[in-house]
Write a structure and sequence with these properties.
Layout (H helix, E strand, L loop, with lengths): L1 H9 L6 E3 L9 E3 L13 H22 L3 H20 L1 H6 L2 H21 L12 H7 L13 H9 L11 H11 L3 H10 L4 H10 L7 H8 L19 H6 L14 H19 L2 H10 L1 H11 L11 H18 L18 E5 L5 H8 L5 H4 L15 E5 L4 H9 L8 E6 L6 H8 L3 H7 L13 E6 L9 E4 L6 H7 L4 H8 L11 E5 L12 E2 L8 E3 L6 H8 L3 H8 L11 E3 L5 E7 L6 H8 L3 H7 L13 E7 L2
Helix pairs in contact: 1-5, 2-3, 2-5, 3-5, 6-16, 8-16, 10-13, 11-16, 13-14, 14-15, 14-16, 20-21, 26-27
Length: about 650
């Protein structure tokens, strides 16, 4: 019998085969195909680790299930399920996923779902993290708890339903759904009600403003358990579990940088608009809720087939048939918990924040460091898919802890250029493709494609301007490198090059502090900000003006960044009618009263000593060379020195 259970759960993953149990001392048990344990070590490490972890949790769950320990099996499957959901949720992993590797992840996901459904009949309770979508899909009429012989549950529903602004039907299926929450789903209902405190002050005002029933709050409970990071295997996301197409139809931004299905405010407004449209079409909140779950077309076809608009008579998917009564059950219990044997939990504190309007994008790690360890910006901004705000978005509104907005803006304004993330403009040259450009800038080709709305074919054309965001403070491809010597550590190297251990780890993909002699590490930026050119600067014109020879891939924007001047000044100095420049063109990069000199660093130099030589401020030299005052100067390094012409 055990062997049969394991084979049924394995399903699509292959024939049953014997293996050693994962627990020492237990007997051998049959398991899924050996292909579950095959890992492509040459492929992307992050994806491998996630799939491997999910596989092992699945195997442990199968082992527990075969031994009759169903609650431990459920815990392992909860872990595997959410590992797979997080894997689908990660944009970084989605970018590297090839067809074969996607098939591997899907095979594991199928096995996890099959195993979960095999465990469900044997467990007495669910956890708040159990995937309710699986339960909705599998609990048919024969699984729902039958109505007790007396009519007390129906009487209680009749007593409480007038206090609800959604229609509540006193029938066997609603009573059975209440009984589910009273038994296996008790912990789930209690945890969700506690969590609802975070979002009530967001959701209820939107529902009131749209003139919708306030009890639609509990639709978010059934959909996501009030978890804005919830993710279903059907690719639904957020508090309201929007599919991508529906979310975009309702005006939500879903791209490389942002997924507003996770934004509690924007997604709630979109859900309200969507629900209002469904009610306008069907004229009944039962049918509107059913359409929210399974789609407008499916509900309409069921109505046409049945010749009735009575939800309870429609031939709908099992998930939807369970969804609507569970929604009614959640709402009626919340109205009078004591009537149904519940104690209303203390709600969690509402999420509160201030919003700051950013003039340029910022790295969340940098902003969190400025605000202090209590500032959890990822929690306040769940819509952000990357550790930075969208580079191309002007005036992006970032949520920060209450009372910290003005301080953050002031601190960001004082950051040296070397501590700020950068966006580069690149003009596509003949022979370029996304891969070669990405390699030059040290980023992924998919990041460039997404940031510039390049289509799936990756087609770019000469002369096209691409925006290249460099994330996480990572230096471009021409960053300074250091070969590790015997006895050196990350700490000593960080001090030598005026950076932090955390930056060294991030730039070099290190998870710990282990390094070895001979290893090459990226340790910071070159003095120039542009990564695709070897720029040459002269100061030989008869009026003392600095000139720059345009190289392939440069733009007025990138040249202005190099020389810390304004684009309008470049246009004025060079009598340019627009922004068009071409390789080989000579541009003035200073006015007639300014000159740029190149100073080569010698042993013992500091920014302060160099500033004294030229009668300048060290802060100005640091700013002109995109450095900080604490940067270590290396012998032979060239610095730009902007001086006045006498």
């Amino acid at each position: 019998m055990k062997r049969l259970i394991w084979c049924l759960v394995a399903g699509q993953l292959g024939a049953c085969a014997p293996m050693l149990s994962l627990r020492p001392g237990s007997s051998a048990t049959p398991t899924v195909s050996d292909t579950l344990l095959v890992i492509d070590v040459a492929a992307e490490r992050a994806l491998d680790d996630a799939v491997l972890a999910a596989r092992w949790r699945l195997l442990r769950a199968l082992d527990e299930h075969a031994a009759g320990r169903f609650d431990p099996a459920r815990l392992e499957l909860d872990g595997a399920y959410h590992l797979l959901a997080a894997m689908d949720d990660s944009p970084g992993l989605n970018e590297v996923r090839a067809e074969k590797r996607q098939a591997e992840a899907d095979a594991v996901a199928d096995a996890v779902e099959r195993a979960y459904l095999a465990v469900l009949p044997h467990i007495e309770r669910l956890s708040p993290d159990s995937p309710l979508t699986l339960l909705l899909g599998e609990l048919g009429d024969e699984h729902l708890e039958q109505l007790p012989e007396d009519t007390v549950p129906l009487v209680r529903i009749h007593q409480v339903s007038p206090h609800c602004d959604l229609p509540i039907d006193a029938n066997e299926r609603v009573a059975a759904s209440i009984h589910f929450f009273q038994t296996r789903g008790r912990e789930t209902w209690t945890a969700w009600m506690r969590r609802s405190g975070r979002y009530r002050e967001i959701i209820l005002p939107v529902l009131r403003q749209e003139g919708l029933p306030e009890d639609l709050l509990f639709l978010a409970m059934i959909e996501s358990g009030f978890n804005p990071r919830a993710y279903s295997r059907a690719r639904a996301v957020g508090l309201w579990q929007f599919m991508s197409a529906t979310g975009k139809t309702e005006g939500l931004t879903i791209d490389h940088w942002v997924d507003e299905r996770r934004d509690p405010v924007r997604s709630t407004k979109a859900a309200a608009t969507h629900l209002r449209g469904l009610y306008k079409r069907f004229g009944d909140w039962r049918l509107a809720a059913a359409a929210y779950n399974s789609g407008t077309g499916r509900v309409q076809r069921a109505i046409n087939k049945a010749g009735s608009r009575d939800f309870w008579e429609l031939d709908l998917p099992r998930e939807t048939r369970n969804y609507v009564p569970l929604l009614m059950a959640a709402a009626v219990i919340a109205k009078s918990p004591e009537t149904f044997g519940f104690e209303l939990p203390e709600p969690e504190a509402p999420i509160r924040w201030d919003e700051v309007r950013l003039k340029r994008f910022v790295h969340l790690e940098t902003a969190s460091r400025l605000l202090g360890p209590e500032a959890d910006l990822r929690h306040l901004n769940p819509e952000l898919r990357r550790p930075i705000t969208p580079p191309m978005a002007k005036n992006y509104h970032l949520k920060v802890p209450p009372g910290t907005g003005k301080r953050l803006l002031a601190q960001l304004a004082e950051l040296p250029a070397s501590d700020q993330p950068g966006v580069y403009e690149y003009s596509v040259q003949n022979g370029d493709n996304l891969w070669t450009i990405a390699r030059a800038f040290g980023v992924s080709s998919s990041m460039i494609a997404d940031a510039n709305d390049v289509r799936g074919d990756g087609l770019i054309r000469p002369g096209q301007t691409l925006y290249i965001p460099v994330q996480g403070g990572r230096p471009p491809a021409n960053g300074l490198t250091h070969t590790v010597r015997s006895g050196e550590s990350l700490s000593t190297i960080a001090k030598r090059f005026g950076t932090s251990v955390a930056s060294l780890r991030r730039w070099n993909g290190l998870t710990g502090s282990l390094i070895k002699p001979g290893q090459k590490l990226t340790v910071g930026n070159q003095p120039t900000r542009l990564v695709t050119t070897n720029r040459r600067v002269t100061t030989t014109d008869d009026r003392g003006r600095a000139t720059h020879q345009v190289r392939g891939g440069e733009s007025l924007w990138s040249i202005a960044r190099q020389y810390d001047v304004r684009i309008d000044d470049l246009r004025t100095w060079n009598a340019l009618p627009g922004s068009l420049i071409k390789p080989g063109q000579q541009l003035y990069v200073s006015g007639a009263d300014e000159a740029v000199s190149i100073y080569k660093v010698v042993r013992g130099d500091t920014l302060y000593s160099i500033a004294r030589k030229f009668g300048l401020d060290a802060n100005d030299i640091a700013r002109q060379n995109n450095m900080s005052l604490t940067s270590t100067l290396l012998t032979g390094m060239e610095l730009r020195i902007l001086t006045a012409v006498d």
